[in-house]
């Protein structure tokens, strides 16, 4: 449930070792830039919804922000590899984001947010999240948010392809971009979240590659070394049999 999601995110963040000498990797810098914008944008939307007494919509907005954008995307992007420390800049940004998320959640979930807020840092006697002010909303980079949505769609397509072709997440893949790459600046995000060996811009996709479209751009993943032909034929035959049975039942 949602309480567990919040608690587990807190435990994950507070459990990281921090290396103040380490430089923030590209993906972490991109993730911080993106989440700061999406957080500021959503906080402004929630404030507007409160003024209009649309409380259920405000709750759903902060729920989606925490569950989808923060937990499923942001934390996965910045999470250090097993046994490694996180850089100090990214860690402090993450604590700041979590603090603001708790404040946005507090009107709906007062008890867990107060408890976690108290545990984040050593607080003075009498301090409470109830009277802790939200920082003023900063600028929102709508262009970057839109670019990130394209990036998420690319990642989603590659992950779907892995599921369809029974390719494990541990196996690296190559991603081909046919023609213009719309979000080349976000390659670091795509590479980590898809476990890619490389992103190659080319005029023609490899023979036998599985392709998908994002907007007007075609992407392809060469699969000649990743698929067992017999297993793929068996999968397709089973899918065909299922669809034939469905049609017969109409």
Automatic annotation (TrEMBL):
Under the cellular component aspect of Gene Ontology, which terms does the record hold? cytosol
One GO molecular-function annotation for this sequence?
ATP binding
Q: Which SUPFAM superfamilies match?
A: Anticodon-binding domain of a subclass of class I aminoacyl-tRNA synthetases
Keywords in alphabetical order: Aminoacyl-tRNA synthetase, ATP-binding, Ligase, Nucleotide-binding, Protein biosynthesis
InterPro entries (UniProt xref): Anticodon_Ia_Val, M/V/L/I-tRNA-synth_anticd-bd, tRNAsynth_Ia_anticodon-bd, Valyl-tRNA_ligase
Where does the Methionyl/Valyl/Leucyl/Isoleucyl-tRNA synthetase anticodon-binding domain lie?
33-175
Task: Identify the enzyme class.
Answer: ligase
The answer, when asked if ATP-binding is one of the entry's keywords, is: yes
| Matches recorded under Gene3D superfamilies | Isoleucyl-tRNA Synthetase, Domain 1 (1.10.730.10)
Q: What is its EC number?
A: 6.1.1.9
Pfam families (alphabetical): Anticodon_1
GO BP terms: namely: valyl-tRNA aminoacylation
The keyword Aminoacyl-tRNA synthetase is annotated on this UniProt entry: yes
Q: What's this protein's family per the entry?
A: Belongs to the class-I aminoacyl-tRNA synthetase family.
Q: What is this protein called?
A: valine--tRNA ligase
| Phylogenetic placement of the source organism | unclassified sequences, metagenomes, organismal metagenomes
């Amino acid at each position: 449930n949602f309480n567990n999601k919040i608690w587990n995110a807190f435990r994950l963040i507070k459990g990281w070792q921090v290396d103040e000498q380490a430089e923030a990797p590209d993906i972490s810098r991109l993730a911080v830039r993106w989440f700061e914008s999406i957080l500021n944008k959503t906080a402004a939307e929630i404030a507007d919804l409160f003024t209009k007494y649309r409380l259920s919509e405000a709750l759903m907005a902060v729920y989606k922000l925490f569950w989808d954008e923060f937990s499923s995307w942001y934390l996965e992007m910045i999470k250090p590899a097993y046994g490694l420390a996180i850089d100090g800049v990214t860690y402090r940004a993450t604590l700041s984001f979590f603090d603001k998320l708790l404040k946005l959640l507090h009107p709906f979930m007062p008890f867990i947010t107060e408890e976690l807020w108290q545990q984040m840092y050593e607080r003075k006697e009498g301090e409470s999240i109830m009277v802790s002010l939200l920082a003023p909303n900063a600028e929102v980079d709508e262009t970057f948010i839109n670019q990130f949505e394209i990036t998420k769609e690319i990642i989603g397509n590659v992950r779907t392809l892995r599921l369809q072709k029974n390719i494990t997440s541990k196996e690296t893949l190559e991603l081909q971009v046919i023609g213009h790459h719309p979000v080349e600046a976000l390659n670091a995000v795509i590479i980590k979240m898809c476990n890619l060996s490389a992103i190659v811009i080319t005029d023609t996709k490899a023979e036998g590659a599985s392709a998908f479209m994002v907007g007007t751009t075609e992407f392809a993943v060469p699969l000649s070394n990743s698929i067992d032909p017999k297993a793929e034929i068996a999968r397709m035959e089973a899918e065909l049999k299922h669809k034939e049975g469905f049609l017969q039942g109409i």
